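Bumping with the actual sequence this time:
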Amino acid sequence: LRERFDAVVREELGDSPLTPTLKIDAELSFLEASDFTVLKGLELLQPFGMGNPEPVFVSGPLLVRKRRTFGHTREHVSLDVMEMASGLTLQAKAWRQASQIPETIVGKQIRLAHTPGINAYNGIASVELRVRDWEIIS
C-alpha cells in the first residue's frame, strides 16, 4: 500500500517538494482592523476549522517600531507596527517565530499577512494582530 500510494502521489504531483501557500482574503487597513465592530463581525464567522478557515488579511506598508520576545523560552515575538498611510500603531504577535524574525527588523518597512482579533488582558480589551507571514519591503 505504501509503495503504491507513494507512486500515485509522485505521478500526480511530481518529485518536487510542495511549497506551502497562504490564502489572503483581502487587504485590511489598520483603521478597519482596529474597529471593534469589524472585529466582532469577524468573530461571528466562527467556529473556524477545516471547512471554515479563519480569514487572513494583508497589510499595507508598516514600519516596525519595536520588537520584543516573550514566553517562557522567549520563542514568541511581539512587534509594534505603524501603518504608514494612517500613522496608527498596533501590536502584532508572531507565535513560535522568534528565531525567524531578527532583531534587525526594527526600523524596517514590512507587510504582514495577519488575522486581527480582540485581546482581553486584565479586563482591558485591545486589538492584536496574529502574524501568519511577513516580508521586508525596504
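The C-alpha cells above came from a reply further down the thread. DSSP finds three helices and seven strands in the chain.
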